[in-house]
Amino acid sequence: MPVMQTPPRQPKHQMTNDTVGHPASPKTKIVGIGLNKTGTKTLGHYLARWGYRNRSYDSNTTRESPAFRLYEAGDIDALMAIVEQHDSFEDWPWPLLYEEIDARFDDVKFVLTTRASSDTWFRSLCNMAVRIGPMPLFEKTVYGFARPHGHKSEFVTRYEAHNASVRAYFEHRPDDLLELCWENGDNAETLAQFVGVNGVDTSPLHSNRSPATVYSGNSRFRATLARWHYLWLGAPHSLGRRIRDAVARRIGRAG
Of 65, 96, 116, 218, which has the fewest Cβ atoms less than 10 A away? Predict the structure, then answer.
């Protein structure tokens, strides 16, 4: 798709607001530009909690992802119209649009969420793929494959290249970029200080945590077996879960 090429900007004027529990400025937008499975939902939940009109991903289907479809079509104007209507962003397609958003809006801060290591990130991605199945829209477009299993090199290369590009783009603008890793000690107070909010609720939360029992390795064969096991026995409302719950209810009544 066509991508706008824009030169890096100079550091922007830092805007503040002493109003407790409100964004640093009504015009300041916060854009999460970490790739998926880097704690993007946690970021979005905190920003929404603090009063930002947050826009996350739409859906990983071919019919229900208007913003990502606009990205595929290269319709930057339509995407920027969506950006105009919201205060904060995370997940697809927003991490792929940081240069375009930076070029169109004056008061924006960016948050690059990352994981403790590339291996940790990849395992989390594999875990998710077992639970939800192939992702023909997002993953296929961004990484080249609908499932990560068997393609660790390609996925990790894309992840590391994205992070390196972001760091290079903001190299001379440290006030405009926060690199945030929830696993390495960063927390909501780190985020609140960066975006310029005071007196907000920074109590811990963790959104979108993956089940520890789901397979997270790189083998396509084992991932397929794990997927079927999860669908039939592990997933909420799966046949195995329903049978187990029904047995437990009957035993409970009998007791």
Answer: 116
Distance, CA of 4 to CA of 27 (rounded, Å)? 23
**Judging by DSSP bridges, how do beta strands 54-55 and 88-89 pair with one another?**
parallel
Residues 6+ apart with CB under 8 A from 23: 17, 30, 50, 51, 52, 87, 195, 196, 197
User: How far apart, in whole angstroms, are the C-alpha atoms of residue 34 and residue 27?
Assistant: 22
59, 84 Cβ separation under 8 angstroms: no
Nearest to 41, CA basis, from 201, 207, 204: 207
Spell out the long-range contacts of 117-122 with Cβ–Cβ below 8 A and sequence spacing 24 or more: 118/156, 118/159, 118/160, 119/156, 120/183, 121/35, 121/37, 121/38, 121/156, 121/159, 122/148, 122/152, 122/155, 122/156, 122/159, 122/218
Q: What is the pLDDT of residue 19?
A: 39
How far apart CA 64 and CA 88 sit, in angstroms, is 21
How far CA 10 is from CA of 4, 89, 100, 176, in Å, comes to 18, 22, 15, 10
DSSP for 145-175? SS--TT-HHHHHHHHHHHHHHHHHHTTT-GG
| DSSP code string of 21-35 | TS-S-TT-EEEE-SP
Reported pTM: 0.81
| Rg from Cα positions in the chain | 20
Is 1 a residue whose pLDDT tops 50? Answer: no
Of residues 221, 74, 62, the one with CA closest to residue 138 = 62
Q: What is the pLDDT of residues 149-179, one digit of tens each?
A: 999 999 999 999 999 999 999 999 999 999 9
